[in-house]
Amino acid sequence: MISRERVLAALSHRQPDRVAVDFSAHRSSGIAAITYAKLRKHLGLREKAIRVYDPIQQLAEVDEDILDLFGVDTIELGRAFAREDDSWAEWILPDGAPCKMPLWAVPERKGNEWILRSKSGRAIGRMPPGALYFEQSYYPFAENADLDAVPEAMQESLWTAVASPPGPLTSGKNGREKFRQGARRLRQHTDRAIIALFGGNLIELGQFLFRHDNFLMMLAAEPHKAHSFLDKVLEIHLENLTRFMEDVGKFVDIVAFGDDLGTQNGPQIAPAMYREFFKERHAEMWRLAKSMAEVKVMLHSCGSLRELLPDLIEAGLDAINPVQTTSAGMDAAELKREFGSEITFWGGGCDTRDILPKAAPEEVKKHVTRQLEILSPGGGFVFQQVHNILADVPPQNVAAMFEAVKNWK
Description:
The protein has 15 helices and 16 strands. By secondary structure, it is α/β, with parallel strands linked by helices. The protein has one domain: TIM Barrel (Alpha-Beta Barrel). The longest helix has 26 residues.
């Protein structure tokens, strides 16, 4: 199988010729730039300028030599853009190593911390001394909400205003044609499965704009206001998704959505509340994407989701990520047994909380092998570690993780 066939087989619950592997093809399967620089050195690969394609999470763009070495079967649509050096600016990582940052999202030094600003100049994210990523510092609707100004508010919120490639490279005159051309070019030059990051956040967007506590209280105490907000958001998402699919749908294989619904101990909201506010809105977006192109839909949602999986499956979800196996009710064997024929587990391949940063390389290999034995049979599984590889992970453990996957039969 070529990589694309391998991933699509897994998504169709057919056993591929080997385990399908994702690394850095979306915002929660990547690697911190600090660790990535160390990984290249550990592997004896030539030194390269480290590109931080995700400024907020400080994630590195993983180069082709490592994608090939680790047998990676996926790639993000954004890799078709910002290939030229003039799209990048020099910057320094928190550990002092040099890197390059997208030209349109270069942090600014203010006192003893780094700041990310919106186009209007507002400080919307901060990285204090000792931190290794940016945190949101401004919530547009925290004090006063104007539901007619949601698009404007999204330009003032960290997670919706700071773009990774293609960023503004496909905006303005002929922007949609540039987007189509980039997607077509990538399709012609890779046999990897292409993931298109759409987003379509619902509960998260409420939290990005109102702040987590305010939006959760709104869902409980002001349901009519919450529905009005979500109706507005869905209208925006559907309009954007229609254009998105018209432009790149025929060039991609998976459309990725995002909505963190879980916590360590259970869902953020009860299943009944998910059904009231989010299920049909998710279903409408996922139906639209599938009606416009031959694609699968994946949802990134951290935490404990077991109670919500039946509703997510019924809403039309094909794959769930990152399968946070250390959360309550997220035991890999139980999930595979209960839901393995209905949804693809895109993740859960290696625990990033305790194993990857703290175990010895041989322990990492044993753990990964065990996860593969549980999750791989019968398809319905794409290997990925549980969320991004953070800056405290030893590079030898990253290498051990992928070596275990490569050697598993």
